Amino acid sequence: MKQFMCNDKTTVSTKAGKLRGYFFDGSYIFKGVHYAEADRFEKPRDVEPWEGVKDATSFGFVCPLMGKETPSGELLVPHAYWPQDEHCQNLNVWTTDLCPEAKKPVMVWLHGGGYSAGSSIEQVCYDGANMAKLGDVVVVTLNHRLNIIGYLDLSDFGEEYDNTGNLGHMDMVAALKWVHENIASFGGDPENVTIFGQSGGGMKVTDLMNIPAADAYFQKGICISGAIEPGIMPAGEGGGRPLVEAMLKYLGLDVSQVAELKTIPYTTLVEAYNAAVPEMRAKNLYTGQRPFVNDWFLGRLEEAGLSEHAKKVPLMIGTVFGEFAFAPQTYNKYELTEEEVQQKLTEKYGDNAEKLSELFKEAYPEKLPIDLLTIDGMFRRPTKAVIQAKAACQDSPTYAYLFNFEFPVENGKLAWHCSDLPFFFHNIDLVPSANVPGVSDKLQEQLFTAVMNFAKCGDPNHAEIPFWPASKAGDEATMIFDRNCVVRHNHDDELLALHKKAGVRISFENAQH
Which CATH code is given to the segment(s) 316-512? Predict the structure, then answer.
């Protein structure tokens, strides 16, 4: 029988005051906890202390989005939708113990959506209850500022706008600081924090590795489909002055009225940005929508390299087989003739089709040749580059993986962007399409246990998977999570090199749509 409580026994003391969450089915849950406060274009500041007990039983606001949310693709990635507001600096906690001496490993989740969209509860599988209960960890998921309220450089307009190009990342650092100062009250160990995230969240993981202000607040990182090639998300040259001046001009304002941008309706701000940005892109000038490189943020790993601190952070990093192969698979791959397969491959890869087929068979002997149509290069290639750069540093281990599962969707659709997340969170029961009797439950345990072991001690190995060595310079040891898990070394180097030459280049923005 499932137990529910919401009383003094579900109340904790934080640095600023008391919070009351609730207990259900084995875990204590605290929702919508404010870790910082800030008005538009202001740096996050600590929350003001309060008297009495604050309610923490409802999710907090998520960051406003620049476009209308339109439900689609729910079979592949089930979503949750929630009210939006700019005051979105809040987090959620799942734990099984409120004793400060429990010292459980802490998992801090950074959501996807690039730097412009998403939320801590956007996907149904982000629920942290099973991870907390079955993994014996404390789970934290957080919201932060995004898009033009999180990443718009106004620093040229006065000291009060210092580092506004990084407010979204400053929110994340503030959240990690809150975790460091308060998570013991939720049974967590502030000295054993793993940040993990997928897609844009994976980018945030590696970004934080290059932000000195965050160094003291986490010890390990897991980057899930979060490395991209330089140029995929162009920021443009220079700072934000040309963009902001164009926005002001659209609004009928001059530079002396820049403070008006702090108070106009969010939808009006978005309208001004959308009107100004085409000119900026045409001139290759700054367009925002991503963190701003300066003394505070040293730059993305793929572009700036590893800081001295980043070299010391144990990292688990990987991708899924198909990533943005969201398009419907209109054929039944099990019924295609060899001639039909060759025709489809030639249509896409031309004269490279035959050689690619040979290399694909060597790299993935358990897959069908037609699966070459949906193999990813957009994330896999830059991920391999990060693995090699990080593995060359002997200060900490780097564990490489590839999620290669075939789902019972559209006659055997191979893993797409986000399809691995229910396995990471031990939530395949919440995602119907992730279930294959006798297969997916086992794979979930294999992947989940590896993630939990990495969070606990920095080593993902356990008895139910083959030995998984850390990668070394020139030796990428990739754990392939599939029906039969296996470790392969440098298995797809040649394949991806030729695939890059023969494939179709895609931008991150186009891929998201």
Answer: 3.40.50.1820
